[in-house]
Amino acid sequence: MTSVRTLPLPDWREQEAIEEVLQDQKRGNKTRGRPPVITKNITILLTGEGNAARELRVQGRNKDGSYGYFYKNIFAQKWNFKATGEKFVHFFIQELTHCSVLA
Prior knowledge:
By secondary structure, the protein is mostly beta strands. The chain has one helix at residues 19-26; strands at 37-46, 54-61, 67-73, 80-83.
């Protein structure tokens, strides 16, 4: 099997903010119950061929208190949330300045 690599590889770029988490941070964590948060656990999933075929996933909790991950295609502008029920107790990011991911 032969692989073809294109050099130079494209630079990493700053991704759009996870608005649900960022907005809550800006309001001073005024969400009732458990506020939305993200952890430092990030995954880049290969979904096909080429540089655009990547899905970014960031473990977190949404504004409804559901545990799971925020996800989006690497070139998409909006993050979505997938509930998994997998709880976490450590590794969440307390203070966010812009809530962005590099990929």
